[in-house]
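User: Predict the complex.
Assistant: Input components as received:
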Amino acid sequence: MIFIILLIIMAVLLLAAAVYSIVHRDLLFAVMGTGIVSVVLSLFFYLLQAPDVALTEAAIGIALTTIIFIITIRNTTRDEDEIIDKENEKL
Amino acid sequence: MKNVFIIILLVVIGYFLANTFADIPFGENRIGDIESSETVAGYYLSNTVEKSKVANVITAIVVNYRGLDTLGEVTVLFLASTGLASILYRRKEEEEDVERLNLPSSRIMRTGVRVLFPSIVLLGIYVFIHGHLTPGGGFQGGTIVATGFLLMLISYKGFNTNHNRMVWIESLAGLSFVGIGIWGLLSGNTFLENSTNVGVLNSLISGGLIPIIYIVVGFKVAVELTGILDILLKIKPKK
Amino acid sequence: MTIILTIVFTLMAIGLILSMFRFVKGPRSGDRAMALDTFSIIITAAMVLLAHVFERYIYVDVALIYAVLGFVGVIVIARYIEGAL
Amino acid sequence: MMEILEYIGMALILIGGIFLFLGALGLVRMPDLYTRLQAGTKASTLGAMSTVLGVGLLHPDWILKILIIVIFIGVANPLSSHALARASYRKGVIPFSKNNIDKYKKAVKKQIKNLTS
């Protein structure tokens, strides 16, 4: 029973992170969203007793894809300074 | 005129695709019973452990039965790395001193990375040496090693990778993969045939050629990914 | 024994939901990176615990690699935020 | 002997679960980034180490890999948290206004002066 509840909670988290990473306009946050997607997906594979696939997802999805995307964002553009200034004005 | 041509082309392609898909039976169990040894999955599950002495059946499928596919995957990775290098490597000649990092990292991070780097590389090597016993294998181990090198690259300014040595390692690894395959042909079997059955099940030396192929793949993937990350980090961002 | 495992898994699931909340809401990139870090560390602990539930020694390997690789992405994000990459 | 080890291991797992939950709760409840970093790192590091050690006590023949995991968590998690805090401060995120203590400001100013000169 607890197993099924865990699976449902994880599926909801997976969908939330995926939708977040599609919808959000800031590229860095979208990349973090894909990171969370692959973290939860890896736990999914692990729960379904496929450790090989879980290992691949952990090695490639979390580390390598995130890193390559962030280096690509560094080489192109992403506006964050405006966000920080707005937040500091609020405080 | 152009649009009419496109429509005619799409209709022809669609007709042949529909014909092809109509032949595929939907809703039937085409894999068959896994337990019976007449289907492919059943053959793999029942014969792998006895014949080639490999504890991890997935490894045997990836490297032994579908070894030619693995060769193709490694080739794709090699082509991607080569293409990236040939596009981006020219930037270095235009600007004299390419600085990888704008700010130095803190002393805490440098010390931590110096502790973690050898252990991460060792863990990656462990993963691809034990590919036939535990989950993981060449690709995963190579990725972990490349991640360790990336940590070094982003925290130390003076850390550089030797491109000549990397090219040599990559070429040797690719050559020995193909060489193992051709050796199978020369000894009277098929390409990449696992012809030597040495060792006992569940020990480090078992499975014949499978651990050797995984070690070769691990070195190749690690070197290629490190090269890709190094080249990407050396581009100057636009201000 | 089983009741303790149930309690711990429930606590972990609530923790995952809470850090997901912080990830969605968090105003700055630092908050979101922190949520990602907490996510990956909770899942590392959950994987080791699940290896105990499944009684398989091999499954610990996956958690080991997780513990190593989960933080590399966060460090790269931090170096990018700093503008030092 | 084995039963005592099992009881200790189960207690460690329970403590670890509670601390993981508290870390995530602190991530939601704390007012600004630095306090959130503190809650999310200290509590969840202790929780994860304790859970993993508890599993190691339940299965004494797994203890080698378990110890390696514990050491990795203990080194890696504070490292990433430190990098995050430093990056956010350099980027100009202001600490929570109720505590007026900010000792890091002087050090950063001195370092920036050294870098530019």
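Chain A has one domain: 2-90.
Let me know if you want any component modeled separately.
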